[in-house]
Amino acid sequence: MSLGAMISKARRDAGLSIDDLSDGTNIRGALLREMESDEFTNCGGETYARGHIRNIAKKLNVDPQPLLDAYEMEQGQSVRSIQDLWVENSLMEVPGEPRKVSWKVLAGISIASLLVIGLVQVQFVSNSESPIPTSTTTTPAAEQTETISDGTKVEIVITATRARSYLLISDEAGVTLFDGQIEKGEEKIYSSTSELTLKVGDAGAIDLRVNGKTIPPIGTSGQVVTVTYGLDS
């Protein structure tokens, strides 16, 4: 029996319709029908698909492990590392052969990092003590509320307006700032010095503001979208 057939049988045994299961899991009915037909391409990736399967098993009061085992066997993919997920999401290049790094190189990197941090702190203190220049130009209040970025950082405000969604957010160095779910009605704010990359599991569920500007919809309901924003976005 295929995974889709297993889910369908468990749902019928529980006396639930597709709509009932959708209400109990917050998974769209159309996507549940695809999953029961052994179609998992619109789940938003392997990690997201496993989360759907666990939610379904919990609602149907069945052991999720047989369903997860069937998913692994049918999809023919092994568990991947965080590095693999970054590569899939275009957040980093495919790694080559590992190279040995001597302790001298590591020590040099550590010292350089400390120097950079020190310079940033000194610059921050210097900027905070500098007087704010007075402008003779009168700016309308509406324009002031739209100007959040001062040109030294990029800021993204993510609001799950219509439904919850999976988010993966990283900065210009490839460091993950957030990897998980944003619930419906929840708002998250992230900033970085030059660039932010955002992967959304359900593009139609969220609204974005970047550097104080409202961004048009980046996708439709259930669509997986990856976007990058910089200082001039």
Structure in words:
This protein is α+β, with helices and mostly antiparallel strands and 233 residues long. Among the domains are: 3-79, Orthogonal Bundle (434 Repressor (Amino-terminal Domain)); 145-230, Immunoglobulin-like, CATH 2.60.40. Helices cover 40% and strands 19% of the residues. It has 8 helices and 8 strands, in the order H-H-H-H-H-H-H-H-E-E-E-E-E-E-E-E. It has helices at 3-13, 18-25, 29-36, 46-60, 64-75, 82-88, 103-129, 141-146; strands at residues 154-159, 165-171, 176-182, 187-192, 195-200, 207-210, 213-215, 225-230. The strands form 2 sheets. Strands 4-1-6-7 form a 4-stranded antiparallel β-sheet, with no helix packed on it. Strand 6 (207-210) and strand 7 form a beta hairpin. Helix 4 runs antiparallel to helix 5 (64-75). The longest helix is centred in the middle third of the chain and has 27 residues, at 103-129.
Q: Write the CATH fold name of the domain at 145-230.
A: Immunoglobulin-like
| Bulk shape | elongated
Q: Could you say what the CATH architecture of the domain at 145-230 is?
A: Sandwich
Biggest β-sheet description: 4 strands, antiparallel
What is the gyration radius calculated from CA atoms?
23 Å
Number of strands: 8
Distance between the termini: 50 Å
User: Unreliable runs, pLDDT <50, ≥5 residues?
Assistant: 90-98, 130-150
Strand order of the largest sheet: 4-1-6-7
| Element-level helix/strand string | HHHHHHHHEEEEEEEE
Helix content: 40-55%
Class by alpha and beta content: alpha+beta
What is the CATH C level class of the domain at 145-230, in words? Answer: Mainly Beta
| SS element count, helices | 8
Q: Tell me the strand percentage band.
A: 15-25%
- The residue-averaged pLDDT reads 79
